[in-house]
Design goal:
It is a single chain. By secondary structure, the chain is α+β, with helices and mostly antiparallel strands. The chain is about 15% helix and about 30% strand. It has four domains: about 240 residues, FAD/NAD(P)-binding domain, CATH 3.50.50.60; about 90 residues, no CATH class; about 140 residues, Galactose-binding domain-like (Jelly Rolls, Sandwich); about 160 residues, Jelly Rolls, CATH 2.60.120. The strands form 13 sheets. Strands 21, 22, 24, 27, 29, 33 and 34 form a seven-stranded antiparallel β-sheet that branches. The radius of gyration is 27 Å and the shape is globular.
């Protein structure tokens, strides 16, 4: 029994903790920053004010994580972000293809919980920052109401991943809120005051059909007059969760200090909308439905943006400007919303895509004022317009991974964030990120420690593609389609494929590439042909004198003709893809982006893949085989298709696809890294949306590794992850490593993007 008498001196329990890096905010950004830093060997404290991790992606808010793939609705091919966020999305696909937000919580909790270098404090809010010097954070105070404990948290480095920026704000770092005038950075898309300068908050709700009549009494505070919402006719009984992103409010208020006021208005709207659906008589199908869940914490889009040594701006995104200090990338559209949100008569969003993905410089990822403060997530240094793109969660995660790795290098060498912005430190940062699975477009750094660079690589077979078998669907050209053809040796290969025509007709065939190598916007015409088709089945032979100076994908466009069907193949091969000139209104893709004059955006067509099980390749025949899948891609491998497949692909008929790495002298190997194909085109939306498979068909499931004596040193079955890191119990001393892969399926030959071997 505890019995305490009256006293005037009681205090909270105080616990003092130290770490190498303290991350405030456990959204997807904070989590990815923490995983990256902890795995690279430093002690991390992750402070999250809520009961679970994930921030806007958690079951408390229920947003699906998106980034450069944009629901597969733009021209960014193979653009899903790498590193920790890839691991999270692939794991979630494996465990949770149904997109259950509660399961998603456990994916994050599990990953963080089992990381020995992370100490996680849940339900703990950072509420005070103590400065050591005017521009150096000394320690933090945080409070957990669940255990009545005040934490005193000490570290040499801090990362602010709180969205609203509690560390940046309390430490006195420069920040901005609202839009820059167009003139400041020459941003033609900067909004007028009438449109508004801040994006608002949103609350979601989920519904379910109980199968029996359910009455609904709205709370007194619910919105009574639904016509106050100009688009009230868009509500229906089917949409819930992320589909109702446009229940948005607060863009005219202070999105930090007025959050509680905004939340009440959003509750008012949500319960009023449900009252309308249940009781207006317009939705009889809702009679058996009930509210299953209503958000209690609003999803915040925008508040403070902190100032780094550089501010990302519209031109960086639209012109895809390059930066020597690129460490991450974005690819979501520039997506601004009217500040009046749901009460605005304007469209709920104003999205403009760029022609490809864009680099994000390291100089946006630390405060220009506070020497030991990294910026992570949505609050990085970007203008309001650029924030319209960089704010989405997979992009926010990708930049946060970069800041997590930067903290590791600072710790190792006793440096501060700014010290890594150039020179050898920057190269080391980029290299460490690439090793950890991060993809940085346009950046390749020679890896002096990778033993594969000095090995001879021998493959038991390399796919020499003569045909994609005619075993797939007959696809009608209801929509224009294009086959992506990787051209590696200058000349477009001769090719043949089968079509069938309902009547005598002509088929318009066109070849295009991208003006910018590595993009997938077909804006460079290379040649065209009108083919006369007779009624019935026929084989078309295409021989076009097209040559390209450097490796690049060429689009073979087959223009719409409803009288024509083309034969497809069930064979799926890494780096080969069909795309369609289709529409995807959810991301403002109407087949073509026609830029409003004067807003600094580009006009171009969208050519996007179909989700599996759709999206088969054309059944092609290559009279001269396509030999572009060699094992030489594996040394320093890029890790995904870019200007070509960048993969070693084995011959489907090879019973044991085997890669041998041979050195002249024995090598000590303490770590082996393999990069498999988990289809970087697949957006893997984390919640709500369901996926047809829980393992990507391209991904090698089973493999084994042997040393020079044929001794088994490692064996994996049932792999589904992009990156496998193999640490033998004892470092190997060997002249040879043999990696034997199993084909992942009858229609998909084994493929590998990269092999890396390190002494430790
Ligand atoms: C309605 C809506 C729709 C959107 N649509 C999409 C979409 O479809 N896909 C997409 O990817 N993005 C979308 N976004 C944007 C995206 O959700 C945010 O930009 C993103 O969540 C930013 O990530 P973050 O980690 O920086 O912040 P958050 O996800 O907000 O995470 C920050 C975390 O820090 C915690 N925190 C805050 N203060 C403290 C403190 N003092 N101490 C400790 N912890 C603290 C918070 O609780 C939170 O968990 C949308 C946003 C909204 C609101």
């Amino acid at each position: 029994m505890i019995r305490q008498d009256f006293t005037t001196t009681r205090k909270l329990h105080i616990e003092t903790l130290t770490a190498d890096l303290i991350i405030a905010g456990g959204g997807v950004s904070g989590v990815c920053c923490a995983l990256t830093a902890a795995r690279a060997g430093i002690r991390v404290l992750l402070i999250q004010d809520r009961p679970v991790l994930g921030g806007n992606a958690s079951s408390e808010v229920r947003l699906w994580i998106l980034g450069a793939t944009s629901h597969m609705g733009n021209n960014n091919r193979w653009a899903r972000e790498g590193g920790a966020i890839d691991e999270i999305l692939v794991e979630n696909l494996y465990r949770n293809p149904e997109g259950n937000p509660v399961i998603f919580d456990t994916v994050l909790l599990d990953l963080v919980h089992k990381e020995p270098n992370i100490r996680l404090l849940l339900n703990t809010a950072v509420c005070e920052v103590q400065m050591k010097e005017p521009n150096v954070i000394g320690h933090l105070k945080a409070f957990c109401s669940q255990n009545q404990t005040e934490y005193h948290l000490h570290a040499p480095l801090y990362s602010d991943a709180t969205g609203d920026g509690i560390l940046g704000f309390l430490s006195g770092a420069s920040f901005r809120m609202g839009a820059e005038p167009a003139g400041e950075f020459g941003e033609a898309f900067a909004p007028s005051e009438a449109y508004g300068e801040l994006l608002g908050h949103t609350l979601y709700f989920y519904t379910k059909d109980t199968g029996r009549a359910v009455r609904y009494h709205a709370p007194d505070f619910a919105l009574k007059d639904i016509t106050k919402i100009p688009r009230f006719r868009s509500f229906n009984a089917q949409d819930f969760g992320c589909k109702l992103w446009w229940i948005e409010y607060g863009g005219r208020l202070d999105t930090v200090f007025d959050t509680e006021t905004i939340k009440w208005e959003l509750w008012k709207i949500v319960y009023g909308v449900w009252d309308h659906i249940k009781n207006s008589g317009k939705f009889p199908e809702a009679a058996t439905m009930t509210l299953e869940w209503v958000g209690m914490i609003p999803g915040k889009r925008e508040s403070r943006r902190f100032t780094g040594d550089y501010m990302l701006r519209q031109q960086d995104i639209v012109e895809q400007r390059t930066h020597p200090d690129a460490v991450a990338y974005g690819g979501w559209s520039i997506d601004l919303h009217p500040a009046d949100g749901i009460y605005s008569p304007a469209s709920g969003c104003n999205q403009w895509h760029s022609k490809g993905i864009y680099q994000i410089p390291y100089r946006c990822l630390y405060s220009k004022d506070i020497a030991n403060l990294f910026l992570a997530g949505r609050l990085i240094s970007s203008s309001h317009v650029a924030f319209g793109s960089s704010r989405v969660m997979a992009t926010a995660a990708s930049v946060s991974q970069a800041s997590g790795m930067a903290a590791v290098l600072c710790h190792r060498q006793g440096l501060l964030p700014r010290d890594l912005r150039q020179g050898a430190n920057l190269l080391e940062l980029q290299l460490e990120l690439i090793r950890s699975g991060q993809y940085i477009p346009g950046i390749q750094v020679a890896d002096g420690e990778d033993l594969v660079a000095s090995a001879t690589l021998l493959a038991s077979s390399e796919l020499s593609l003569t045909a994609l078998p005619e075993d797939g669907d007959w696809t009608s050209l209801e929509e224009s389609m294009a086959q992506l053809l990787p051209v590696q040796n200058g000349l477009l290969p001769v090719l043949e494929f089968a079509v069938t025509a309902d009547r005598e007709t002509t088929l318009e065939l066109e070849f295009r590439a991208s003006q910018r190598r590595g993009n997938f916007t077909p804006d460079l015409p290379l040649g065209a042909k009108t083919l006369s088709l007779r009624e019935g089945h026929q084989i078309l032979r295409i021989e076009m004198p097209i040559s390209l100076p450097e490796p690049q994908y060429v689009f073979m466009l087959l223009h719409r003709n409803t009288a024509v069907r083309v034969r497809c193949s069930r064979q799926r091969i890494t780096g080969l893809l069909t795309v369609y000139n289709s529409v995807n209104p959810a991301v403002s893709n109407y087949g073509k982006q026609e830029a409003t004059p004067g807003i600094g955006m580009d006009s171009f067509e969208f050519w996007c893949p179909r989700r599996r099980p759709g999206g088969q390749n054309l059944a092609l025949r290559f009279p001269a085989p396509l030999s572009i899948f060699g094992a030489h891609h594996l040394a320093g491998g890029i890790g995904r298709p870019t200007t070509g497949p960048n993969a070693w692909v084995a011959d489907p008929g090879d019973p044991e696809p085997t890669l041998t790495l041979r050195w002249k002298e024995p090598r000590k190997i303490g770590r082996i890294q393999l990069s498999f194909d988990t289809d970087y085109d697949h957006p893997m939306e984390s919640v709500l949306m369901t996926h047809p498979e829980n393992v990507v068909p391209f991904c090698v499931r089973n493999y084994r590794i042997m040393d020079e004596n044929g001794e088994l040193v490692h064996h994996t079955t049932g792999n589904y992850r992009s990156h496998n890191r193999i640490i033998p119990e004892q470092p190997l001393l060997t002249r040879e490593l043999t990696i034997v892969l199993e084909h992942p399926g009858p229609h998909t030959p084994a493929a590998l993007f990269a092999v890396r071997c390190y002494e430790k």
